[in-house]
């Protein structure tokens, strides 16, 4: 009986030590973080709120106090950039260092998962390399009149569809499939 108690106590102590270490990741790097329960982290928070609400709480608490803040989703450390210049640097200058996304998904699951913003790592790099020359400022200025014309045509088609329905429902699949 004492043997099982010792084994259980040892496993419990190791688990607590492991979780403490995992939840000190940002603290050890000198990055401010939300206060965490060392045993459960933010497990109950994640069960009751959406990840975006957790990130919004981080933003509200540290807005104006820090440029980068850390938090956790279960035991995974998540960096939250609060400074606009830092966000710009991440998205433009250092984009090649920030290729992976948070969510894991099945690649064959849906066509939306093959979108540039949803791809990870090695599948993202070649697609971005192909698309980057397309979106220079000169080419965007050249494309703008065409985009404006197409947007006006879409607005007209949408208005026609709305007038045809009595309840205001429009089947977007039919409208966008043209």
From TrEMBL:
Subcellular location: Endoplasmic reticulum membrane; Microsome membrane
Alphabetical list of Gene3D superfamilies matching this protein: Cytochrome P450 (1.10.630.10)
Any one Gene Ontology molecular-function term assigned to this protein's record: iron ion binding
One annotated Gene Ontology cellular component of this protein: endoplasmic reticulum membrane
Main location: endoplasmic reticulum
Membrane topology value: Peripheral membrane protein
Cofactor(s) needed: heme
Alphabetically ordered keywords of this record: Endoplasmic reticulum, Heme, Iron, Membrane, Metal-binding, Microsome, Monooxygenase, Oxidoreductase
PANTHER family in the record: CYTOCHROME P450, CYTOCHROME P450 6A16, ISOFORM B-RELATED
Family note: Belongs to the cytochrome P450 family.
Protein's UniProt name: Cytochrome P450 6a22
Organism, scientific name: Bactrocera latifrons (Malaysian fruit fly)
């Amino acid at each position: 009986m004492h043997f099982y108690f010792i084994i259980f106590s040892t496993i419990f102590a190791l688990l607590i030590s492991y979780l403490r270490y995992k939840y000190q990741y940002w603290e050890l790097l000198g990055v401010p973080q939300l206060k965490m329960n060392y045993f459960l982290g933010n497990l109950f928070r994640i069960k009751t709120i959406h990840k975006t609400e957790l990130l919004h709480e981080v933003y509200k608490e540290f807005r104006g106090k820090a440029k980068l803040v850390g938090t956790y989703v279960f035991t995974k450390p998540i960096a939250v950039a609060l400074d606009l210049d830092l966000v710009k640097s991440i998205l433009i200058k250092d984009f090649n260092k920030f290729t992976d996304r948070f969510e894991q998904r099945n690649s064959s699951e849906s066509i939306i998962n093959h979108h540039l913003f949803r791809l990870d790592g090695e599948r993202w790099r070649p697609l971005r390399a192909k698309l980057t020359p397309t979106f220079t400022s000169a080419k965007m200025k050249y494309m703008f009149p065409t985009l404006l014309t197409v947007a006006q045509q879409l607005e007209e088609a949408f208005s026609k569809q709305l007038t045809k329905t009595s309840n205001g429902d429009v089947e977007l699949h039919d409208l966008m499939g043209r």
